[in-house]
Specification:
About 75% of the residues lie in helices and about 0% in strands. By secondary structure, it is mainly alpha-helical. The chain folds into 2 domains: about 50 residues, Orthogonal Bundle (Arc Repressor Mutant, subunit A); about 150 residues, Tetracycline Repressor, domain 2 (Orthogonal Bundle), CATH 1.10.357. GO terms for molecular function: DNA-binding transcription factor activity; transcription cis-regulatory region binding.
Length: about 220
């Protein structure tokens, strides 16, 4: 918390918080939540351990902030695609997949999935936070896009339009595989563009309403 009587430099505070989160992310991906020590986070961020507590109330608070910061941008990008009137719904879905693949496979979010899973088993409150505050906004944005596509007649009203796991399951599986393969001397090479294209084609095959039969003249 900022000291009483002193004006708050919001830009400095934002930079310090970002530096501490970045350092915490490095420690989390290498040592997990149980192995994260705030003194190590502080050292990597170039601040004292007591300074960490000026910005985050606890280790759990810092962990939550790291997760939230990684998901906010992705949820915002999907929300923006929902209102992209220059794109039809299949195009919005394609760009949403691009956003999700980038978030899960080209950013630290995917590397944190094993950490999140391990942490959830030991700390139910942190598991609940992940589901409601991190996954929740992403799920709502994605399901909102699908519901709007159904309402517009672009997608069929099928179970897949109401199930986030059915939509993003392949991306999560690839992210976990990539995280595991990072520890292998010669990890398998994934053709992500081809996998993404196949994923999109499978989704569209399930989502596009069947064509109505021609009516006899």
């Amino acid at each position: 918390m900022p000291q009483a009587g002193k004006p708050v430099d919001h830009a400095l505070r934002a930079r310090r918080e970002a530096d501490i989160r970045a350092s915490a992310l490095d420690v989390l991906t290498s040592k997990g939540y149980a192995g994260m020590r705030l003194d190590e986070v502080a050292r990597l961020a170039g601040v004292s351990k007591s300074a960490v507590y000026l910005y985050f109330d606890s280790k759990a608070d810092l962990y939550k902030s790291v997760l939230k910061s990684l998901s906010v941008r992705t949820a915002g990008e999907i929300q923006a695609l929902r209102s992209a009137r220059d794109l039809d719904y299949p195009q919005r879905l394609a760009q949403t997949l691009d956003t999700l693949y980038a978030a899960m496979l080209e950013s630290p979010m995917g590397a944190l999935l094993p950490v999140v899973s391990e942490t959830a088993r030991q700390y139910p409150d942190l598991a609940a936070y992940f589901l409601t505050e991190v996954r929740g906004p992403l799920d709502l944005a994605l399901l909102g896009l699908m519901a709007e596509g159904v309402a517009a007649g672009a997608f069929a009203d099928r179970p897949i339009t109401r199930s986030v796991p059915l939509l993003v399951g392949p991306i999560v599986a690839l992210a976990l595989q990539q995280s595991i393969a990072a520890n292998v001397a010669q990890p398998p090479v994934l053709d992500l563009p081809a996998l993404k294209r196949a994923h999109y084609e499978l989704l569209m095959a399930a989502l596009v309403p069947p064509a109505l039969p021609d009516t006899p003249s």
